[in-house]
Amino acid sequence: MRLPKEKIIFTVDWIPIQGVQFRIMDDTYIPDIEEGLKKVIAMDWETLIPGHPGSGGKQTGTKDNAREDLAYLQDLSAAVKQEVAQSKSYDDAIKDISLPKYAAWPNYKNFLPMNIERYYDYWNRGI
């Protein structure tokens, strides 16, 4: 939802504030999430209200947070695509991929392997 006069957007479950995506991203079609983020970033707004608080209970974010999330997804995508191109397995990709730039984000350690698995499915099987 966007409130143009207030320059606020409200999003739920797809633009975390400095956080990796939730678990395995079951209901996410990879091209759509990245294109959606690009469209949201291009809109005229200043304040992001996510459906869930960010690190330290932060309740609001900015376009920089949306840009960071897009960068995370693009970095993750590139890393997984490389693993798939080398015919690596899920387990090898999970073991090999590390994105230290995002290591301080909440749930990085817990959810990164599942995010890798989701991108692996996309790059390996197109789903």
Number of strands: 3
Count of discrete structural domains: 1
Largest sheet: 3 strands, mixed
Terminus-to-terminus distance: 27 Å
Give the overall form.
elongated
Strands of the widest sheet, in order across it, are: 1-2-3
Question: Helix and strand string, N-terminal first?
Answer: EEHEHHH
Helix content: 40-55%
Q: What Rg is obtained from the alpha carbons, in whole angstroms?
A: 15 Å
Which key phrases capture this entry?
single chain; 127 residues; mainly alpha; three-stranded mixed β-sheet; 3 strands
List strands and helices in order, with pairings:
Layout lengths: L1 E2 L4 E4 L18 H13 L4 E4 L12 H23 L4 H7 L11 H18 L2
Describe what is shown at a glance.
With 127 residues, the chain is mainly α. It is 48% helix and 8% strand.
Describe the structure.
- The protein is mostly helical.
- It has one domain.
- It contains four helices and three strands; from the N terminus they run E-E-H-E-H-H-H.
- A three-stranded mixed β-sheet has the order 1-2-3, with helices on one face.
- Strand 2, helix 1 and strand 3 (47-50) form a beta-alpha-beta unit.
- The radius of gyration is 15 Å and the shape is elongated.
